[in-house]
Amino acid sequence: MTIVKTAVPVARKTLSVATVAKTLPSGAVAKPGAAAVVSVVPVAVRAIKPRGLSATARIMVSTTQSQAVWFGRSASTANPNGRTSIPLAMALLRLPYDLTAKDNPLADAVLLHLEDGLERLRGDCQLRIVTVLDLLAERQKMGVTTPIVTARDPIELECAFGTPYHYMLVDALALYDSAVRHLLTVSMTGLLSSSQVRVIILGLTKDFARLLYDLVKMTSTLRKTSSEVSRTSLLADATHQKLLEDWEAAYGAVSEKVLSGLNRPTHTRAPSWSATP
């Protein structure tokens, strides 16, 4: 198996989170020496601009699978969810994170759903990495050292962060990229069949894409609700109670612990709340 790497110009290409690039068409293979073609989509540029404190970090990705998760893909038969890129998810994350300052339980539900999904994804990726390392350790006992494959010219992504969840998404992408590289290594060395590896990588990719799609969809619904929704109003306002019913019909029941404030996201803008039994 040959590792397909995205060729870049002589100077390293740095791609900003505010620049959503279109990669090669699905199934296409970059020709050796060809420069990556980047076309700017202005949709996420204004939305991703962080407010207040922010930081900039960089992440290196080696696999085409990670690039596909980052940039997303247009809607198609194979990808009916449409574009669910990480830059888009980062832009939308500001809304639920800001609404936690207003004690909005629906915003908490969005962030808790993201946290749970990322935890499952990290667990699956770590399991694959550990499995691969165990297989390589057995080969090491025979005196054969097998390095983990990586791209000769990895793509560098520059990210402007305004919330802790931005970092969590990028950390998940880094772990996913590592898991894919480990899996490709055992495929190249014949320790696992190519078909087995493809199925495993596809499963991880679908889980990541589904999580991003859920975030986009839930945030879109959250944007349409009243900005004055709070835990208090859900009990006193009939209109807000209807919003909760519609939300639960679309995304499942919001637990009593979330509604009461006993279960909150790890990171919020809310002050310290004292939950009363």
How is the secondary structure organized here?
Elements lengths: L13 E3 L26 H5 L7 E7 L2 H8 L14 H14 L5 H37 L13 E7 L2 H25 L5 H31 L6 H6 L1 H14 L4 H5 L17
Parallel strand pairs: 1-3
Antiparallel strand pairs: 2-3
Helix pairs in contact: 2-5, 3-4, 3-6, 4-5, 4-6, 5-6
Tag the structure with descriptive keywords.
disordered N terminus; elongated; three-stranded mixed beta sheet; mainly alpha; 277 residues; 9 helices
What's this, in brief?
By secondary structure, the protein is mainly α. It has helices at residues 43-47, 64-71, 86-99, 105-141, 164-188, 194-224, 231-236, 238-251, 256-260, and strands at residues 14-16, 55-61, 155-161. The protein is 52% helix and 6% strand.
Q: What does this molecule look like?
A:
The chain has helices at residues 43-47, 64-71, 86-99, 105-141, 164-188, 194-224, 231-236, 238-251, 256-260; strands at residues 14-16, 55-61, 155-161. It is mainly α and 277 residues long. It has a three-stranded mixed sheet with strand order 1-3-2. Helix 2 (64-71) packs antiparallel against helix 5 and helix 4 (105-141) packs antiparallel against helix 6.
Class by alpha and beta content: mainly alpha
Major β-sheet annotation: 3 strands, mixed
> How far from one another are the termini?
59 Å
**How much is the average pLDDT?**
78
Strand content: 5-15%
| Share of helix, binned | 40-55%
**Looking across the biggest beta sheet, what order are the strands in?**
1-3-2
Please tell me how large the radius of gyration is: 21 Å
Low-pLDDT sequence parts: 1-51, 273-277
Order of helices and strands: EHEHHHEHHHHH
What's the tally of helices?
9
